[in-house]
Amino acid sequence: MCGIAGYVGSGLAQPVLLGGLKRLEYRGYDSAGVAELTGMELAVTKAVGRISELEKRLTESGATIGIAHTRWATHGVPSEPNAHPHVAGKLALVHNGIIENYRSIRDVLARRGVTFTSDTDTEVLAQLVNTEVDRKKREGVDRPLAEGVRAALREVRGTFGIVVLSADYPGMLVAARRGSPLVIGYGDGEHLVASDTSALLGRTRRVVYLEDDEMAEITADDVRLETLDAQPVKRKATKISGKLDDVQKQGYAHFMLKEIYEQPEVLHDAIRGRLRPDTGTAKLGGVNLTDDELRDIDQVVLIGCGTALYAGQVAAYWLEKLARVPATAVVASEWRYRNPIVSERTLCVALSQSGETADTLAAIREAKAKGARTIGVINVIGSTIAREVADGGTYIHAGPEIGVASSKAFTNMLGVLLLLALQIGRVRNLSEAAGAAIAKAAAELPEIMASQLKHRDEVAAAAKRYHGTRDALYLGRGLTYPMALEGALKLKEISYVHAEAYPAGEMKHGPIALVDPKLLAVVLAPQNALYEKTKSNLEEIRAREGSVLTVTTEGNRDLDGLADAVLEVPKVHEVLEPFVLAIPLQLFAYEMAVTRGTDVDMPRNLAKSVTVE
Ligand code: M6R
Prior knowledge:
Elements: E1 3-8, H1 13-24, E2 31-38, E3 41-48, H2 51-57, E4 65-71, E5 86-88, E6 91-96, H3 102-111, H4 121-139, H5 144-155, E7 160-166, E8 173-178, E9 183-186, E10 191-194, E11 206-209, E12 214-218, E13 223-227, E14 238-239, H6 255-261, H7 263-271, E15 275-276, E16 281-282, H8 291-296, E17 299-304, H9 306-323, E18 327-331, H10 332-335, E19 346-352, H11 358-369, E20 373-378, H12 384-388, E21 393-395, H13 408-427, H14 432-443, H15 445-452, H16 456-466, E22 471-476, H17 480-495, E23 498-503, E24 520-525, H18 531-543, E25 547-553, E26 565-569, H19 577-596
This protein binds 5-amino-5-deoxy-1-O-phosphono-D-mannitol (M6R).
């Protein structure tokens, strides 16, 4: 969603800020802006649309301090007045998050004569901060900028990651967070602040993450950390990994394509050293539960949104099949409000690529508050969920995922969840022989997936054939049902083709009414224990003249007369089918999007990390 970059040092601020914003582009945005301070002169430049539009309006100012922002509209349409930074008096402020009580604050300020030029909650916050900074100045307190920010934040409800710059206090940025991430980068005679470490890459690797209810006074030479309650905070800088290459396309047409092609390598990285093929188990370092504690679990709740939720649905099948423990995948935004039933024997697993998804974060907090055991399965190192999920957590090591539509984070999340199912399974019901068969087959997955990626042309041909499709119905059974959900999500996200998914057996209970020659049915029918049942559903569609694209096992000729187009996947252990299905489903969505000319990496209206509820 929104992105923040800030800089103070002896170098030119503008290139650092623009470079930072560009590396945050993937988060999704609709407008952007920069505030720079040259001497005591505050200059703000904004543009609707891409950062390139903003760049066209900027001239090098010589400023060595500034803040910048990409906005994803929540309150008010995408427009210049609504874009950040927001100016109030002599200060400028950028904000990620939502100020819930902004209307009442706005009314109070308006009665005092403050006028507003935008529809945003952020402008209200900027005006409130300005009022409080002026008050602190009149009272003659030390550090009026920091104290004014602190006083203003006492008044607000909601979430914020903010950075403030003031012409009255040149050479200083004040940052604060509650619920929206901020990270401070320590450079040589300079400091940076950003909502995401990718904005810092290429400039520094030494960082300090702000925790909730903390603030920082940042100058070129110093960072002073405190809580919002004015308690000093001491925290050592940590080193971030990641390369600038990770956030560049490296010759691929799109980040998503690059990330699809990275899957064999990153899956290998995620399972290497953790999978124990000989004993049929796995050891996930961050899962701080003893074997006895794992045996004691009486239910597993997998919590996520979107693609992470579907990875959870696959894992629920695995956990029940391999570990014989009741497991359910739940929609984070629903589960947290239904007074969930958990106990100290419930294991709640927060699934999130970004580790910042507001709904997942809120749900795992609810699980913890109710006494459940909690762990996270997260991609972004140091993200809020990764740091907050106290009982333990494990990283999926997919590397930065820039394309808004998740690909490699999905398969790596599956990889780590399979390891979790094996680890729990082996201390419960899973025999060594059964575990070893799966673990050995899993170790071969990266190579198998690499060979699948050589068949992109076949998928592109199918996409060419179906590029005019308006509606698609994805069908799967058992483990292939969540893959149908994921395939349909990918297609709708990036190609804007309406797509939904059903368990194949449910089709005749309603969706069959949709079947006609214009509907594309994508039937996931690998030759597994449920194959014959799925084939019957396929025949039902065929009998009603629906067009069918099927994904089945290599060499299966059984469906030749029943499907218009066939994509093949290698024969693997039945439990591992989701991995090999992911590749053609992702490539099909990608090729459909390319033939339809949509913006693959930054699809309309979507944000990479959804930090509002
Ligand atoms: O960062 P998270 O994994 O928590 O994100 C969850 C969803 O927002 C995300 O998976 C979304 O559905 C993607 N755009 C899917 O491609």
